[in-house]
Amino acid sequence: MSVGLLAVVDDILSAALKASAKTAGVVIDDAAVTPQYVQGLEPARELPVVGRIALGSLFNKFVIIIPLALLLTAFAPWVLPWLLVLGGTYLCFEGAEKVMEWFGFHHESGAAETTTEPKLVFGAIRTDLILSTEIMLIALASLDTGLGFWATLGALAVIALAMTGVVYGAVALLVKVDDVGLQMMKNPVRRTRRLGARIVAAMPAVFRVISIVGTVAMLWVGGHLVIANLAETFWHGPLDLLHVVEHAIETAGPVVTWIVDTALSAVAGLALGLVVVAVVTGIGRLRGPRHQTAH
Question: Measuring CA to CA, which residue among 94, 103, 120 is closest to residue 217?
Answer without folding.
Answer: 94
